[in-house]
From TrEMBL:
It catalyses: a primary alcohol + NADP(+) = an aldehyde + NADPH + H(+). Its EC number is 1.1.1.2. It holds the Pfam family ADH_N. GO terms for molecular function: alcohol dehydrogenase (NADP+) activity; zinc ion binding. The keyword Disulfide bond does not apply. Keywords: Metal-binding, Oxidoreductase, Zinc. SUPFAM superfamilies: GroES-like (SSF50129), NAD(P)-binding Rossmann-fold domains (SSF51735). It comes from the Bacteria. Residues 16-345 form the Enoyl reductase (ER) domain. Belongs to the zinc-containing alcohol dehydrogenase family. InterPro entries: ADH-like_C, ADH-like_N, ADH_Zn_CS, CAD-like, ER, GroES-like_sf, NAD(P)-bd_dom_sf. This is alcohol dehydrogenase (NADP(+)). It comes from Kitasatospora kifunensis (Streptomyces kifunensis).
């Protein structure tokens, strides 16, 4: 069987608006499943990549790594999924499967040549460009798909595949739970998932947002405290307060000011991926034995664990469902921090 051609929204060149097009999807291999995409979330990483913030990518670029849909066809050797199963795909569609990290289930940190195979703006095992979720269908190896549990609707499940796991993984790694004083910087797509998940884990959650405009939402989502970072008094009041700070902001921040909010042995985890470097003063870390770390999405096993956890706790994303023709407008709004709290594309409009 040869490849199939499907509809998609693509950016033809760096910073160019997305427009409707067609793309190839590979013929189903033995362990592949064909997914009919129902919903695709818009992550700020999609915007960074379309805009070439992280270096010039591969165009045409079909973004989308928060994919939720239904299995429409299975390869002859598929054992994990059957027709009609509710499935998701996140940020990667394959990895070397042999390195230490892949074997440990940390495929996102694959050290094989080229690292993990990104869902888009990357190349697949066959060497062909990969195209993401702003599309009607995707073909993926069954080992890199996730099962979306009954009890979470597919539209609110889609953002869990990146935003959800990206916050769940550091919360799990740094053992956030009862007694943890946690701050999340930025109440956007990632931040709001972090608030929900951290609250369900039992942590004491503080949101650090630019203003108090989303305070009611933050408290409703599970935050215990909410502060405006535009108010200098916030930094005086919260000095030395937190065990763990997760920075989800897509722009540069004064990291030294936020490091001053950590208590002794506290950790600030950089999650947001702004284009430019940020300065860290040695003495923002030295007194208090503080750590500055990073974290990237999560592995397949942990992503499944996160989905099951979210289903068990009734957690989905807060979404604004849009038609494909509204993608460019949604990009504008995300860049203005005008998102409550994730745009999700209805793939039936592609
Ligand atoms: P988002 O929905 O745009 O949320 C980012 C939030 O950051 C905004 O809602 C805003 O929150 C705050 N913010 C934006 N500009 C700011 C500025 N100039 N100063 C201070 N705060 C600002 O984006 P997202 O989809 O959550 O993604 C956030 C970042 O994480 C992006 O850089 C993305 O590429 C990155 N990311 C990383 C990973 C990973 O694995 N590490 C995975 C996914 C995404 P307030 O309005 O509350 O201030
Ligand atoms: Zn993402
Ligand atoms: Zn590997």
């Amino acid at each position: 069987m040869t490849h199939t051609t499907v509809a998609a929204y693509a950016s033809p060149a760096p910073k160019a608006p997305l427009a409707k097009t067609t793309i190839p999807r590979r013929a189903l291999g033995e362990h592949d499943i064909l997914i009919e995409i129902k919903f695709a979330g818009i992550c700020h990483s999609d915007i960074h990549q379309v805009n070439a913030d992280w270096g010039v990518g591969t165009y045409p670029m079909v973004p989308g790594h928060e994919i939720a849909g239904v299995v429409a066809e299975v390869g002859s050797g598929v054992s994990k999924y059957a027709l009609g199963d509710r499935v998701g795909v996140g940020c990667f569609v394959d990895s070397c499967r042999e390195c230490e990290n892949c074997k440990a289930g940390d495929e996102q940190y694959c050290t094989g040549a080229g690292g993990m195979y990104g869902t888009y703006n990357s190349r697949g095992r066959d060497g062909e460009p990969t195209y993401g979720g702003y599309s009607t269908h995707i073909v993926v190896d069954e080992n890199y798909a996730l099962r979306i549990p009954e009890g979470i609707e597919l539209d609110v499940a889609a953002p869990l595949l990146c935003a959800g796991i990206t916050l769940y993984s550091p919360l799990a790694h740094w053992n956030a739970g009862p007694g943890t004083k946690l701050a999340i910087i930025g109440l956007g797509g990632l931040g709001h998932m972090g608030v929900k998940i951290a609250h369900a884990l039992g942590a004491e959650v503080t949101v650090l947002s630019q203003t108090l405009s989303k305070r009611e939402d933050g408290l409703r989502l599970g935050a215990d405290h909410y502060y405006a970072t535009s108010d200098p008094a916030t930094f005086e009041e919260l000095a030395g307060r937190f065990d763990l700070i997760l920075n989800t902001v897509s722009a540069n921040l004064d990291l030294n000011a936020y490091l001053s909010l950590l208590r002794t042995d506290g950790t600030l985890v950089q999650i947001g991926g702004p284009e430019h470097p940020m300065e860290v003063a040695p003495f923002a870390l030295i007194p208090g034995r503080k750590s500055l770390s990073g974290s990237m999405i999560g592995g397949i096993r942990e992503t499944q664990e996160m989905l099951d956890f979210c289903a068990q706790h009734g957690i989905g994303s807060e979404i604004e469902l849009i038609e494909a023709t509204q993608i460019n407008e949604a990009y504008e709004r995300v860049q203005k921090s005008d998102v409550r709290y994730r745009f999700v594309i209805d793939a039936s409009t592609i």
